[in-house]
Specification:
The structure holds two protein chains of two kinds.
Chain A: H1 2-31, H2 38-56, H3 60-87, H4 92-113, E1 131-134, E2 138-141, H5 142-164, H6 166-176, H7 178-183, H8 188-213, H9 221-235, H10 240-260, H11 264-282, H12 285-291
Helix pairs in contact in A: 1-5, 1-8, 1-9, 1-10, 2-3, 2-4, 2-8, 2-9, 3-4, 3-8, 5-6, 5-8, 6-8, 9-10, 9-11, 10-11, 11-12
Chain B: E1 4-13, E2 16-26, E3 31-36, H1 42-50, E4 57-62, E5 65-66, H2 72-78, E6 80-83, H3 95-103, H4 113-119, H5 136-148, E7 154-158, H6 166-181, E8 186-189, H7 193-199, E9 202-207, E10 210-216, H8 222-229
Parallel strand pairs in B: 3-8, 3-9, 6-7, 7-8
Antiparallel strand pairs in B: 1-2, 1-4, 4-5, 9-10
Helix pairs in contact in B: 3-5, 5-6
The chains are: A mainly alpha, B alpha/beta.
Amino acid sequence: MIWLNQVIQGVLLGGYYALIACGLSFMFGVMRVINLAHGDLGILAAFLVWAIVEHSGMSPFLALAIVLPLMGALGWLMQRAMLERSLRAGVLVPLLTTFGLAIVIQNLLFEQFGADTRSLAPAIGDLAFDSWSLGSQIYIGKLAGLIFAVAVVLLGGLQLFLARTGLGRAIRAVAEDPDTAELVGVDSRTVYAAAAAIAVMTVAVGGTFLGMRATFAPYAGPAQLIFAFEAVVIGGIGSMWGTLAGGVALGIAQNLGAQIAPNGFLIAGHAVFLAVLGARVAAGERGLRALFGRAA
Amino acid sequence: MSVLGLERLEVRHGQLQAVRGISLAVAEGETLALVGANGAGKTTLLRAIAGAHRPAAGRILLDGADVTALPAYRRVAQGIALVPEGRRLFAGMTVEENLLVARANGRPGPWTIERVLATFPMLRARFKAKAGSLSGGEQQATAIGRALVTNPRVLLLDEVSLGLAPIAVERVYECLRALIGAGATIVLVEQDLGRALRVATRVACMLEGRVVLEGAAAAMTREQVSAAYFGLARGEEPQPA
């Protein structure tokens, strides 16, 4: 029963990982950019929500509704002002650019908020610790359940958006062949900017939930980036449902690792990530195609 | 007034000058066939008209308006559509989605997805199939349909018969003849000289980036065009490929 409980907790944790990973996956799938500032953008959103909650006493969920469009605008601006230019200079330059952006965000947050850790848990009351009991040994945290449900809705919504809307189809067309997309009338610059805005909005949701389920500090972004990156590699870049599966696999591995040994939480997750990466490289072109697949 | 006009157009690929000062005019309802050997600059010229290559010099006019500086996606909205060599469909998207992406960015006009399906009946059964799973002929029909749903003023067709089985080529050309009969303005790049001469109203033969022969298709013999094609018309020896 203990093992089953760990698997269930792992699945729920995987929902959080999928939330922070889907934007990373989305940006790479469409623009072929690995955004090293992704985790820091999530932390920035968490700080913005925290600041609004602190100053107004508003619910963090309402504060998130205010922060989301701001983060979307930031994503749009980031693409148009930085990534678009750096993409023209080759594949390494965007990597360095987003690395620089990560450092800037971390230090701006440190300058503004100091080094203290913060949490949004006090602002959500009982939701932070309430749970449903399934028998005597299995408990499902209400917040963890909510995060998982939001992840499923968000990823499913993104999948539907890509499949059913004009902008979604344009994003898929640009992801597949940007030159031809331009030749059928798609403005790839606008599409890239919209994709970046969507990616940053999704990580804002992830960052806010991080603030509700744990603590965060100005330099917490890189750790979130690592989890997101691992979930994406396990699930396959560019696939929304693959990202959810990757997050769940990572969460289960971490929880089972922790059950085996107290310090096994991170090691087990990293081990699964390395095993999947190794298997994909060993599988040759087919495995790498599964890893680097375009936006679903 | 011509629908499409080129004035001393020059296009470079790095150090290589692929198009050298070409001036052409295409009238409403006309089908201009661009013929020439590999490397003559036909595809580059077509791509420059569509906005995929930026000209080094010269002007591209659409209905008299200068579109030289417009990016490719805005030229589609103005009325220029290219069916690229090799089809270049979005392979992971269905036929319907390929058409919808283009339809969303085109001009208003008579070409709807339903009309494309009526023109290319072979696509009806494959409407929900991924473009990557289609046969060559079905892919070419989808590529032409994708260009048509933008309701272009000028349709640019690059090597539509390339890599297709003879029966598929025949079907595609049957549809093209119907388009031409309906008054479409077309610039066609075609390797098959005989086919080009049969469908075109006018022919321009390119050699090393220049137009070396131009005139009404009906007034030209296959021998004349062949001579220009290989550079014999100006006293040059044919070069091995």
